[in-house]
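Thread: "does anyone have the structure for this chain?"

Original post by V.I.:
We have the sequence but no experimental structure in hand. Need at least a predicted one for the grant figures.
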Amino acid sequence: MLVGLRSETSLDGWLKQKNCPFEFATNESEGTRKEPGAKKQRTVTYEGTELFLRKHLKIGKCGDANECCRIYFEILGCGSGKILIGHVGRHLKTAQD
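Reply from O.Q.:
Generated one for you, tokens below.
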């Protein structure tokens, strides 16, 4: 349970404290953010608003798409308690692909 988390930094610290095998990334590289195909894969529409999902959990080390997983998400408002999950699965396209 994520009780008392107040920031993205807290999420990363909480995962480390719990010895979770996930790594938390608050953003994508500048190149990936600017690459149209990569940006499209990370963009979802929620309640009529387009959201570019930058936050993600990394599971496994990349190098082989079959050996890693990414969970892209957005926290919807501080007090809502809602998290929008946009993608769970293979590593998405990056600027280097």
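V.I.: this helps a lot. Helices lie at 8-17, 30-34, 36-41.
O.Q.: and The mean pLDDT is 83.
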